[in-house]
């Protein structure tokens, strides 16, 4: 059985300027990958391109053996959940309302949650120890709590693939470490596939078995603890 979740062929990305050229990359089921690079290296642009939010310069992207160009947004949403680095400015919604949105691809935005939907939401709240916050307004939460809500919304989407763009940007050191450890165990225990774009080189070396390093149109795929990866990281 083919367990490839993401296949990238000859991919070049960027805007007026090429940021990454001729990327060949394969991500399989149950793998935890980090995309690491300096600001402006193309991490977020790569994420957006993989999600179909930004056009590539050339190349092909296949999610679970289907070309991204042939997938409708709702089909892609059932394959991939995404957490952006930016926290939305929401004043009028409660935590529970945002979490319900994670099930909207199955309920067509109607508030007709099934018992399964409710259980997934309740289980996720319990797992994240946020039961006491579910009726709080999102705007009243700390940045760390807001980031946790956005991750819960993605988990509630119940996909096999999770992509996170700088998920620890708003967290203190203790919570940054918690998230990497949690994602590592979640991936390992449930055979989920996780791709995270990050600056957290020290945490990547501890928790991410596989890494895509990008800089100046070049890239390296390796283990973050290999000397080759360390040299690449230090060079750029």
Task: Name a few traits of the molecule.
single chain; 236 residues; alpha/beta; 2 domains; 6-stranded mixed sheet; 10 strands
Briefly characterize the structure.
The chain is α/β, with parallel strands linked by helices and 236 residues long. The longest helix has 18 residues, at 173-190.
Walkthrough of the structure:
This protein is 36% helix and 26% strand. A hairpin with a 2-residue loop joins β9 (210-215) and β10 (218-222). α3 (95-101) packs parallel to α6. The relative contact order is 0.18. The strands form two sheets. A six-stranded mixed beta sheet has the order 6-7-8-3-9-10, with helices on both faces. Strands 2-1-4-5 form a four-stranded antiparallel beta sheet, with helices on one face. It has two domains: 1-79 and 163-236, Rossmann fold (3-Layer(aba) Sandwich), CATH 3.40.50.300; 84-158, no CATH class. By secondary structure, it is of the alpha/beta class.
Strand content: 25-35%
Alpha carbon gyration radius: 18 Å
Main sheet: strands, sense, barrel: 6 strands, mixed
How far is the first residue's CA from the last residue's CA? 38 Å
Helix content: 25-40%
How many domains is the backbone divided into? 2
CATH class of the largest domain: Alpha Beta
Tally of separate helices:
9
Q: What is the CATH homology-level superfamily of the largest domain?
A: P-loop containing nucleotide triphosphate hydrolases
Q: What's the CATH architecture name of the largest domain?
A: 3-Layer(aba) Sandwich
Shape: globular
The neighbouring-strand order within the major sheet is 6-7-8-3-9-10
Are there runs of 5+ residues with pLDDT below 50, and where? none
DSSP strand tally: 10
Average per-residue pLDDT, rounded, comes to: 92
Order of helices and strands: EEEHEEHEHHHHEHEHEEH
